[in-house]
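Whether sequence alone determines local backbone shape is best considered at the level of individual chains. In the encoding step, the backbone of a single protein was reduced to a row of integers, each denoting a local shape. For completeness, the protein is quoted in full, as a sequence line and a line of structure tokens.
***
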Amino acid sequence: MNNTKYIFVTGGVTSSLGKGIIGASLAKLLQARGYSVTIQKLDPYINIDPGTLNPYEHGECFVTNDGAETDLDLGHYERFLNIPTSQANNVTTGRIYQSVINKERKGEFLGKTVQVIPHITDEIKHRIQILGNTGDYDIVITEIGGTVGDIESLPYIEAVRQLEWELGEHNTIVIHLTLVPYLAAAGELKTKPTQHSVKMLMQSGVSPDILVCRSEHLISDDIKRKLALFCNVKKQDVIQSIDAETIYDVPNLMFDEGLDKVVLEKLKLATDKQPKLIKWNEFLQKFKNPKSTVEIALIGKYVELHDSYKSITEAFIHAGAANEIKVIIRWIHSEELTAKNISKKLAGVNGILVAPGFGDRGTEGKIEAVQFARENNIPFFGICLGMQMAVIEFARNVLGLQKADSTEMDKDCPIPVINLMEEQKEVTKKGGTMRLGAWDCQLTKDSKVFEAYQKELISERHRHRYEYNNVYKNQLEQAGMKTAGINPKTGLVEVVEIDSHPWFVGVQYHPEYKSTVLNPHPLFVSFIKAALKQSKG
């Protein structure tokens, strides 16, 4: 018999309260108590996945080992739990409906009228339980995207109601994350929005077992008592979540509030093993007490929304703590960079990271940034498109191939040093058709990347259509751009370096996806170390 327990995290009053962080923090505490835990995200939008969404819409698209393009919250789950997620950890309404419609087309419903209840809700329940049915997890935490009361969230809430009934008492609990706003004019915290939010949830047949209340001010016992009375929970089940200095403080704050203990008691699970977050707190200690500071220029074209580069900024935090360095990011829009202003815009930075992206907007600015880093011996890190820009810059300015470009930017360019991958040439659909997920890479021993990884064969996650064109490999290598990593099966160049430069590395893959609190990514650690050296001259 499968004894997996299910925790559902819903949100009320407003979006962006941090359901993902609360879920990940709870998971971290339960993991530290010896339970095997995973988290999944149910997203109510109708896109099949975030892969086709503009980063301005939804922040970055996170990629798993098995090639799923997912919500950025899965990045938080991996960074907190230090275990990889998969296709099953992120489900969208689009995927639910697509699956049900495909079944209908095959005649699997035997001519029945296909409806939201039971067909859509059954599919949601099936997706929720996929991870639990593997037998690998004691507890599955399911975060339901959006806010209670949204039309698109209703089938998910109904699926939760049905699962609570089907799985029985002590096998499921609902945590409702809500906002308790502070009205400065009145000088008090207001509980009414939370009361309305819980009322709306209860109208859908679901009663929260625990309230987690986000607020800027401490929630008094009186307010907790009031919330408990009006929201039908016990006073100890009202947990305050005060604004934290950093998301990495939240597991400790939730432990102090007793969230994990309350959850385990409700699920009738043992609470005797206390969570010990020793390595986690060592990381926090280093993060909060840096011995030095470096400034890194992050060159991108979606810099107005920092969430577009969430995994990169978090990888800087992990690598900074590992080096006991505070990493300050100078956000620079690549469209604003020109040969005339680049010296001013990049003055004083200790490292330059050219970020991933798609399309030709802002690419000339990225090429200017690469040239500036190369010619001024500033540590340079190019990721995905950033690596491709480094190859184009080198071909133009060192090899003298002025018309070198990528066929992504100019489909008729005469010198395509970056070209469309062979298997991509017949692809017409955009969604989920790139080279995605984990691929092997063989590193060259006498290289900066080998020095960082300390192993020859690595596996990293990809998300791209275009590739380094091997036709130009000999020319580039003879001029000083070394191939430091290739895919052993396809011969695709994955890593380039310049030996004569203090630290110049471009990678076709996305190392930021694999950086976690307990395992900072070795390339980011090495890059930050090089930036510190640069800062000391």
Observations:
- The chain has a mean pLDDT of 91.
